[in-house]
């Protein structure tokens, strides 16, 4: 024992440092006084990054981890600041991202008095948190911070600590009951290791794959970092790949048998192929639409690999369930399966992918006219570094990014994929640039989502975190308007007034550029990158048309199913004259299509 004293707030920060915390995102408040005082202490090494809205702070903390940085920490004022954190924390929970949220609260003597701003805060997060406590004494503070972070990382989720305002100031013994001496368990932390895969299961999976006539690999986040092995397995057993929205960067964008993702935020080839397949190897995925949309309704055999026992069988009944690391299991299957040399199934799907790519390319490479989102992506692809980072919002931009960005495993692409909260891209860009000072960061944002987040452009300016914001301005909530087109008689509440986002950028000390013609997009994007390279924060306000990206979830390109008139109208609307249904490619290879016409028409799932 020593008689060394330190403030509980500083002790808590020292514990965080032991876990690699380098940044705390938030807005100060009276209820955070003790903690803020400790952050100002010369002995503290953790930076406080002030945002303009706590939601931005929470999202930045979460996106930092999604982009591969250290665990993020966010703070919110007791009451209104704590409630503002909610979208970021709910996004983290749905995406299994560790994060620590510190909620300020009344000093301990004022608790439970129904006083100003007092709110029973922990229950707000009861639904999602893996750790959710109110600190009871100053001595507990460093110890519970340690506990909270360890639990968040081990359980991959949200840790919430409510801290009475006075605790941070209190002088505690550095050797206390709870920390003898004060310590962070971060240094000795060991994460779960996947169980080694079982040979018998690998053999069973290999046999099913080799017997399959129409196999597909459905590759989720578990395959991230193992793209090359999955591509090799795909080629060996002639099983084209479907990936999930979150997982595009795992594969080379031009891999010949990458059919994209299924459902609305997806590609035509994947949506068609999954209904024609007989066998699915479902790897490291939790694709949430699969049961409700009947994604696997035409499949005979389903093999699943997951390192989490709770996931095996969750989305579809399994014929073989493999518990273990996706990369290890894929390598083991690869070693066991026999190579398939000829496959009409593979050939038909590869041709279908090429047909889709030709269509995408045509849209991207138009040279004149009113600007469409497609040509903006063409310019981004041209000027993006090969290891560019994309922080992407929710809306058409999610769907468009997956179709048009030329991603490889060198890139990173992150969004709010499951909670799907608008407003995530700009905070994500703050965190990405903070984590990777030398990498080029693009924020891809719809105008609706930018309107939720643009006050924080100045945060990038203030902290010298240059990024390129590309705002897709169609003066509407396009993703929702497009949905209502299929489901609603009245399309209300979806349009809005145009705003000069370049001026808003300039007002915050960033560079604002505007473009509305295809002829100008190359020049403007080059200018944007030039400014960015000079260390400036840039906002490109891309005034685009209201064209709806082709709805592949209600695909109408097959005259056998929908009749000539419907197909012609559909193709005309989406400039898609060249699109050919997979059925035709299958038949050209001597295969029969088992595609079943949708009986329930459009879906109403979101
Ligand atoms: C916080 C939040 N509010 C509402 C929604 C519902 N929603 C999903 S996409 C979208 C429209 C996005 O509009 P915008 O950012 O302009 O992009 P666009 O689709 O027009 O390209 C809306 C309102 C949401 N996902 N998140
Ligand atoms: Mg919009």
UniProtKB/TrEMBL annotation:
Keywords of this entry: Pyruvate, Thiamine pyrophosphate
UniProt KW Cell inner membrane keyword: no
UniProt-listed InterPro entries: DHS-like_NAD/FAD-binding_dom, POXB-like, Pyruvate_oxidase, THDP-binding, Thiamin_PyroP_enz_cen_dom, Thiamin_PyroP_enz_TPP-bd_dom, TPP_enzyme_TPP-bd, TPP_POXB-like
Thiamine pyrophosphate enzyme TPP-binding domain span: 393-541
All copies of domain Thiamine pyrophosphate enzyme central, residue ranges: 202-333
Top enzyme class: oxidoreductase
EC number: 1.2.3.3
Gene Ontology molecular function, alphabetical: magnesium ion binding; pyruvate oxidase activity; thiamine pyrophosphate binding
Keyword Chloroplast: no
A Pfam family the protein falls into: TPP_enzyme_C
Domain Thiamine pyrophosphate enzyme N-terminal TPP-binding, first and last residues per copy: 8-123
PANTHER family listed in its UniProt record: PYRUVATE DEHYDROGENASE [UBIQUINONE] (PTHR42981:SF2)
Family: Belongs to the TPP enzyme family.
NCBIfam families: pyruv_oxi_spxB
Protein name: Pyruvate oxidase
Organism in which the protein naturally occurs: Weissella minor
């Amino acid at each position: 024992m020593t008689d060394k004293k330190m403030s509980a707030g500083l002790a808590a920060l020292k514990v965080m440092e032991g876990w690699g915390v380098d940044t705390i995102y938030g807005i100060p408040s009276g209820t955070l006084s003790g903690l803020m005082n400790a952050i100002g202490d010369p002995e503290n090494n953790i930076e406080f990054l002030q945002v303009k809205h706590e939601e931005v702070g929470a999202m930045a903390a979460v996106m930092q981890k999604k982009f591969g940085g250290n665990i993020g920490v966010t703070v919110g004022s007791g009451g209104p600041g704590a409630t503002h954190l909610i979208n970021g924390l709910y996004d983290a929970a749905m995406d299994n991202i560790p994060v620590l949220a510190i909620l300020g609260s009344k000093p301990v003597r004022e608790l439970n008095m129904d006083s100003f701003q007092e709110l029973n805060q922990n229950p707000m997060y009861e639904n999602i948190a893996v750790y959710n406590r109110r600190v009871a004494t100053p001595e507990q503070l460093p110890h519970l911070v340690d506990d909270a972070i360890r639990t968040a990382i081990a359980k991959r989720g949200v840790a919430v600590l409510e801290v009475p305002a006075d605790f941070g100031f209190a002088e505690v013994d550095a050797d206390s009951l709870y920390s003898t001496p004060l310590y962070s368990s971060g240094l000795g932390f060991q994460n779960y290791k996947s169980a080694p895969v079982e040979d018998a299961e690998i053999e069973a999976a290999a046999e099913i794959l080799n017997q399959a006539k129409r196999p597909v690999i459905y590759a989720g986040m578990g395959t991230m970092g193992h793209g090359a092995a999955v591509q090799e397995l795909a080629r060996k057993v002639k099983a084209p790949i479907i990936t999930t929205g979150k997982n595009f960067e795992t594969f080379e964008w031009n891999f010949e048998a990458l059919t994209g993702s299924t459902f609305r935020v997806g590609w035509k080839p994947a949506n068609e192929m999954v209904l024609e397949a007989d066998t699915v190897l479902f790897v490291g995925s939790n694709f949430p639409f699969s049961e409700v949309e009947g994604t696997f309704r035409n499949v005979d055999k389903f093999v699943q690999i997951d390192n989490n026992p709770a996931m095996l069988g969750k989305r579809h009944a399994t014929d073989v369930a493999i518990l273990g690391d996706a990369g290890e299991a894929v390598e083991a299957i690869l070693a066991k399966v026999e190579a398939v040399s000829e496959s009409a199934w593979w050939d038909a799907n590869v041709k279908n992918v090429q047909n889709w790519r030709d269509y995408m390319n045509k849209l991207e490479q138009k040279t004149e006219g009113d600007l469409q989102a497609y040509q903006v992506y063409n310019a981004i692809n041209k000027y993006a570094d090969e290891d560019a980072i994309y922080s992407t919002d929710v809306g058409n931009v999610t769907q468009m990014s997956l179709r048009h960005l030329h991603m490889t495993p060198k890139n990173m692409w992150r969004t709010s994929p499951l909670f799907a909260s608008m407003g995530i891209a700009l905070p994500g860009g703050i965190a990405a640039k903070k984590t990777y000072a030398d990498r080029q960061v693009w924020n891809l944002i719809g105008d609706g989502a930018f309107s939720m987040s643009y006050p924080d452009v100045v945060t990038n300016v203030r902290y010298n975190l240059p990024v390129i914001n590309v705002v897709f301005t169609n003066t509407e909530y396009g993703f929702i308007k497009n949905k209502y087109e299929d489901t609603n008689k009245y399309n209300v509440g979806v349009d809005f007034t145009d705003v000069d986002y370049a001026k808003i950028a300039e007002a915050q000390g960033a560079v604002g550029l505007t473009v509305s013609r295809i002829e100008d997009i190359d020049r403007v994007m080059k200018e944007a990158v030039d400014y960015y390279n000079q260390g400036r924060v840039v906002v490109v306000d891309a005034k685009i048309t209201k064209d709806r990206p082709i709805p592949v979830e209600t695909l109408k390109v097959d005259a056998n199913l929908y009749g000539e008139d419907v197909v012609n109208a559909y193709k005309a609307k989406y400039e898609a004259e060249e699109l050919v249904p997979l059925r035709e490619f299958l038949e050209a290879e001597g295969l029969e299509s088992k595609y079943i016409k949708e009986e329930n028409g459009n879906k109403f799932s979101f």
